[in-house]
Structures are given as C-alpha cells and as structure tokens.
Amino acid sequence: MSSATTTHKKTATLKDYIAIARPDNWVKNIFMVPGMLFALSIFHTPFSNELLLKILYGIVSICLVASANYVINEYLDAGYDKYHPLKNKRSSVVSEVNPVIVYLEYALLGATGLLIAYLVSLKFLSMALLLLIMGIIYNVRPLRSKDRVFLDVLSESVNNPIRFAAGWFIFTPALGIPSSKWDLDWINTFPPVSIIIAYWMGGAFLMATKRFAEYRLIGDPEIAGQYRRSFKFYTENSLLVSMFFYAITCAFFMGIFLIKDRIELLLSFPFFALLFSWYLRIGLLKDSPVQGSEKLYTRKWFMLYLILFTIMLCVLMFVDIPWLYWFLKNANNY
C-alpha cells in the first residue's frame, strides 16, 4: 500500500488534533440511553431541572472521556493503522503529530470528563473512571489487550455495559457512600448483573462482527497481523464461532433479565433476534458497513428497523401487560 510506505508527512494542524478525538464517534454513547430508561422504569425518578442538568453533565462527561481514549488510541496505533485499507487515512497516520500536544489533549479531555462526572454522582464518576482505565488497558503496553486474541473483543466491548451503568446511575437515587459493607439500599441501586452481562456479550457480538469484516477486507493474513497482532491468530471460522458464542450468551442472560425484571420485554425477543440476524447478514457482506458507524448509517432499512425497535422497547418498558404475569405464573405450575 502506498500509504504504508509514505515517509513525508504534513505537520498536524488544529483540525487534525480535533479529528483524533473523534467527536463524530460520540454517537456511540447512545448506549447510555437504555441504562437511563431501565433505571427510570424501576426508580420512577421524577423529572426536574436538576435531573436534566445531570443528564447533560453525564453525556458531556462520557463523550470527553471517550475522546480521551480515542486520542491515545490513534496516537499509539498510527504505526499499525497504516496497514488498514480504511484507517490508513486517519490524521495520526498521514500527519506528524506532536506527542506533547497529544498527551496534553488526552490529560485535558480525561480530567475534564472526570470533573464533570463528579457533578453527577460518585457512582457515575466510578463508571467514567473505569471507562478511562479500560482505554489504558486496551491501548497501552504492557497490557494492550487489543493485541491479544479474543481478549481484544471482550476488553473493547466491556465499554458498552460501562456506558449502560453510567446512564443507569444518572437516574438512580443519590445515597452517598454506603454505611456498611452490606448496605442493601446502596447495593440495590446497581443494575442487575444479568443485563450487564447481556449488554457486554451483545457488544462483543457487534465487535467480533466488525473484526470479521476487517479481516476479510484486508484479505491478507500477513498484512492483517501487521495491522493488529491478534489477527495473527484469528481465522474467518474462529471469528464466526466467537460471534455465535457471544450472541447465544447475550440471549441467555437477556432472557434471565426479562423474566426477572421486566417480563413485558419478552414480546420484543423475536425482534431482538431479527436485529442480530440482520446485523450478521450485513457483517458478512464484502467491504461490510459494520466497520464504521458512519458507513452503517447507509443501510437505511436497517436503521429504520433499529429506530422502530427502540420505540417498541421504550413502550414495553413503561406499559404493564398483566396477562404476561398470569402466563408466567401458570407456566410454572406445569
């Protein structure tokens, strides 16, 4: 590839330093919204100016922390991204960036994000801090989990339940610091473990599908291994099998959550299965759009379905359907 052998780079401009923070990827923080809605349906948090301010602070905080992770990601990956057919056009690859400015940008974004997170609650701050730490684990040696087969997917996709929990904690009651190790009132404000695992595995399915599409796009296992060390150990078959595992695990824990915490959402399960199947179909396409959210938006029917599915989830979270409880009670008698 010509970009892989380029030796002369232009000096990075302000636009380039903004680009490596990837503000266009802030849309991924929409994964906070289900956490907000689930918490709202459980705690019935009254709307007020204070809550609206917390929502604003929360969204801004997670966006800034995510951008801090993107900054360090792009800078440390510049030497690898040049082997990727699409990422070789990133600002950090084609421009000569100043490491001092990069680290200052990272520190400013991260510190500001954490400071704003503190204005929401201590539990929200813990999620913002965890998101920042996961960026270090994922990108920085000697950990650099993105280089480790399967762990790259799992450590990246764990950001989804972190975002979910962050959205959740915006709407939970502020109880301060627990008075004892077994303070149940404080513990009960945490999201159910079943939805956290389901959210994690759902994100892993999406990420593994992206890895599969990237692996096929590069087309050469040797070049793929230069782009990302974990690709030296992947094959199309191993990625497909992992996608299957993540999808089944997600469905299993999602089922546990739906039955225990919100049985009305059981009605969404066939549509949930269709969403995963449709996404997999898109992921198997040549030069698949799942490699970037900006490309996925071009699948208009899929995006329309996603919007309608989201609306249906919102309705089912706040509308009670008594006969479902009767059905579950009577089913247990057989």
Automatic annotation (TrEMBL):
Keyword tRNA-binding in record: no
Transmembrane residue ranges: 26-43, 55-76, 124-140, 190-208, 238-259, 265-282, 302-328
CC annotations in GO: membrane
Subcellular localization: Membrane
Pfam families reported in the protein's UniProt record: UbiA (PF01040)
InterPro entries reported for this sequence: UbiA_prenyltransferase, UbiA_sf
GO molecular function, one term: transferase activity, transferring alkyl or aryl (other than methyl) groups
Top-level taxon of origin: Bacteria
Key words of the record: Cell membrane, Membrane, Transferase, Transmembrane, Transmembrane helix
Topological relation to the membrane, as annotated: Multi-pass membrane protein
UniProt name for this protein: 4-hydroxybenzoate polyprenyltransferase
Lineage, uppermost ranks: Bacteria, Pseudomonadati, Bacteroidota, Sphingobacteriia, Sphingobacteriales
